[in-house]
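Re: weekly structure request thread

Next one in the queue (110 aa):
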Amino acid sequence: MLLFSCPNCGPRNETEFHYGGQAHVAYPETPDLLSDREWAEYLFYRENTKGLFAERWVHSAGCRKWFNMLRDTVSYEIKSVYGMGEQPPSASGAPEHPATALTASEGAKS
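Done, posted below.
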């Protein structure tokens, strides 16, 4: 099991969180002008990145607040945890908040 670090509550078991999809997907400025195909693409088409990926998560069994996480989808290494509305970390994946970033090996439980 992984140990996720909630920006509000600190380190918690991954079972307390729910995945919210790809982070930083902008809502259409004029959704009423979109065709059915364009609306479907906004709702369902997401990147399927192998490697670093920005995701949204909610601490559903804790503070119930949303946050973003930059995670490696191959190794499960968590590079950074940052708040909603904040800019993602640099392309290098260096954590913006080192105290809130845990690797899979640091958070792994048998």
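The helical segments are 36-44, 104-107. The first helix runs from residue 36 to 44.
Next request, please.
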